[in-house]
Write a structure and sequence with these properties.
The chain has helices spanning 16-26, 58-84, and strands spanning 6-12, 37-44, 47-54. The chain is of the alpha+beta class. The chain has a three-stranded antiparallel sheet. A hairpin with a 2-residue loop joins strand 2 and strand 3. Helix 1 (16-26) crosses helix 2 (58-84). The chain is elongated, with a radius of gyration of 16 Å.
Amino acid sequence: MRPAPEAHLRLAFRSEEEARAIHEAIRPDNELLPQGLSIEGALSGRVVELHVVCEKGLESLWATLDDLLACVQAAERALEQVKQDPSGPEGGGPARI
């Protein structure tokens, strides 16, 4: 039996706060996964580490990595937006839900 394709990503950020925010932002996406897919994440200082195992083959692993990195990029953009305008929506502070 051929071993399942896997990848290990190590993403370094400018600060521990940024790494923590990114890690928290992508974590919900990694909790309910289809059978045959495993994503484990760890936070260590300024570094987010992700270990991805995909039993569905290399093409599926690549698609998963692409999706995961797109989520990281979206979280980075959102964090940058918050840094630029910390007053929140319409200048009135954080949105209330």
